[in-house]
Amino acid sequence: MSQHPSYLRVFCTFARNSLVRDMTFRGNFLIEIVSSMSWVCMNLGFYILIFQNTDSIGLDTGWGKYQFFIFLSTTLLVNSLVQAFFMPNAAEFSELIRTGTLDFALLKPIDTQFLVSLQRVNWASLGNFGFALVLMGYALSKVDYVPGVLQVILYPFYLLCGVAILYSLMISLAATSVWLGRNQTLYNFWFYITNFSRYPMEIYKGPIGTPLRHAFTFIVPVLVVVNVPAQLLVKPLRPQVPGDWLLPGFTVVAAAVSLLASRWVFNRSLLGYRSASS
């Protein structure tokens, strides 16, 4: 028998157990879906009102009504994956430390970060994922531009790069619970930062917008999370133009560096952890 567990099998077990737990309280599960979908519909209604007064967001940005709906769909896809697989686990990390339950995670013959990050799946959050796919299909049918095969193939790849960047930021902030105890303020900081990713980077201009754009692209790369995959579906991909590949190339590097940095922060935090029995 292998001494190393199958991580895919373990994750499937986590997902199945989470679904069983959600189905045990079906009323609460349905309320969570309705609540989440209501929030999405209200946001969509807000943007519909905006586009009744303007043809595009910003001048010469290329983000018209339906192009922005593709952007909004990408935002929902990324956020629904993060909220379904990582957010409930990161939110509970400080409780694992406070109650000493982290001791049991450290004793298990499996990677601790994997266990802490994926032991629970919030299935209700995936309702937004389905809504986003429907909205994207509708928006794509309304735009004049048809993305090519390469763009369609690259889109899910860059979608996962965005998820990796947001996960890295989230687990790094959660790991600081080892040093700071209940770090709810720092965890809320994640929401404040990721709000910048909800809008096209072209709107960040001027003496205030330009520094923000550079900071949240190259220092804390949250602007590339949605912008890069969304642009693949609304703008022509020109392989012969090297400049068109700078931001997508940077996104891949940013995702890899973010994962490595979050791994380092998580492992450093474990070195500072003091067992509940010590």
Descriptive tags:
single chain, 278 residues, mainly alpha, 13 helices, 0% strand, globular
Explain this structure.
This protein is 73% helix and 0% strand. With 278 residues, the chain is mainly alpha-helical. It has one domain. Helix 3 (65-85) packs across helix 12, helix 8 (149-175) packs antiparallel against helix 10 (184-194) and helix 8 packs parallel to helix 13 (246-271). The radius of gyration is 20 Å and the shape is globular. The protein starts with 6 loop residues before the first helix and ends in a 7-residue tail after the last helix.
Tell me briefly what this model is.
With 278 residues, the chain is an all-alpha fold. Helix content is 73%, strand content 0%.
List the helices and strands and how they pair.
Blueprint (H helix, E strand, L loop, with lengths): L6 H18 L1 H26 L13 H21 L1 H13 L2 H6 L4 H7 L7 H17 L6 H27 L1 H4 L3 H11 L11 H14 L3 H12 L11 H26 L7
Q: Could you give the distance between the termini? A: 34 Å
Give the integer mean of the pLDDT values. 86
Main sheet: strands, sense, barrel: none
Oligomer: single chain
Record field, number of beta strands = 0
- The tally of helices reads 13
List segments where confidence is low: pLDDT < 50 over at least 5 consecutive residues. Answer: none
In helices, the fraction of residues equals over 70%
Structural class: mainly alpha
H/E series: HHHHHHHHHHHHH
Tally of structural domains: 1
Rough shape?
globular
The gyration radius over C-alpha positions equals 20 Å
